[in-house]
Amino acid sequence: MAPLTGPFPLSPFLSAWASDAAPGAETLVAHSPDGTLPIWVDGATIRFQGEADLTDYHSPLGDSIDDCIALIARRYAGHPFSFDSLPSEAVAPLEWSLEHQSATFTTTRHSAALVVDLPDDYEAWLSSLSKKHRHEVRRKQRRFVDLVGEPDYERRDDPEAFAAFVGMHRRADGEKATFMTERAEGFFQTLLTDATATIDLLSVDGRPVAAGFGFAEDEAYYLYNSAYEPELIGAAPGIVLLASMVERSIADGLSRFDFLKGDERYKYHLGGVERPLSVITGSFA
After folding, report:
1. Which fold has domain 119-254?
2. How far apart are the C-alpha atoms of 57 and 101, rounded to whole Å?
3. Cα–Cα distances in Å, from 111 out to 33, 77, 86, 122, 230?
């Protein structure tokens, strides 16, 4: 298994995806004493469980997946496959197993996650940013207080926090609002209840103004989604929240803050560095 891939290759996340995001998908979990490979059949194409736009990392599990790939190659002989969202550590083992089954394939880069390797203290993180962006973070924090008030920050997993997150999503403009369908809400709810997700809230006088939805693990925090009150965009509540989340991650002793997929400029401004992700496409013999 590739390191620092969060909840995405694991059963609780994939079960939430299968039940809420892709009900009725034909799924299979190939097991061997040394490895596990969860797949699904998209038409005729074999893929990892978890669509690429919902699942930021894919990785085989265990020390060896040779037997798992052999099982899949026998069952789906002649079928095409597309294994996406692979960090570099997962590419070579999968290529090795596919070669042993005489599969034909190509490996290409198709995306990247944006990650920050965290220093030991918050001021060191700020100092690692460019002068312009360091000053911008501090300016936006001061401006937020002037325009909105003194913020309170907390991490929660209760129904009220979830309702605040969903509500801010649906009050947003454009695609962000339309993304939060009833099915998407059910998916996020299952991640919260069954896959150890949490919600980070920025509030002023008890009113939530920004929310981050993600996963805090022993080594890293993974920011899966976020929302803020659209009428407060001029006060940059999202940046104020993210700075608080990075500060908490450092205080908790985490080594990485992972913005996951997406090339939004703010991720680079806050110190994000690309972690390349590959896709292996081909067909079984």
Report:
1. Aminopeptidase (3.40.630)
2. 24
3. 31, 28, 9, 29, 28
Angle at 115 between CA 180 and CA 135, to 5 degrees: 95
Distance CA 285, CA 272 (A): 40
- Alpha helices by DSSP H, listed for the chain, are 11-16, 66-75, 88-100, 122-128, 131-147, 159-171, 175-179, 182-194, 237-251, 265-269
Task: Name the DSSP class of 90.
Answer: H
**What b/e string do you get for 142-152 counting C-beta neighbours within 10 Å, with b at 16 or more?**
eebeeebeebe
Q: CATH topology of 11-112+276-283 equal to that of 119-254?
A: yes
Digit-coded pLDDT (tens) for 13-45: 999 999 988 888 889 999 999 999 999 999 999
- Cβ atoms of 81 and 87 closer than 8 Å: no
Token readout for 56 is 């930021």
Phi, psi (5° rounding) for residue 73? -65, -35
Which pair of structure tokens corresponds to residue 86? 């692979």
pTM (predicted TM-score): 0.97
- The per-residue pLDDT for 1 is 84
Question: Is pLDDT above 90 for 281?
Answer: yes
> For 31-45, 145-159, 206-220, which range has the lowest pLDDT when averaged over its residues?
31-45
Both tokens of residue 105? 């394939």
CA torsion 221→13→85→181, rounded to 10°?
-100
CA 58 to CA 54: how far, in whole Å? 11
What's the token pair of residue 223? Answer: 């920011």
* 11-112+276-283 CATH: 3.40.630
Residue 22 DSSP code = S
Task: Report domain extents, the chain.
Answer: 11-112+276-283, 119-254
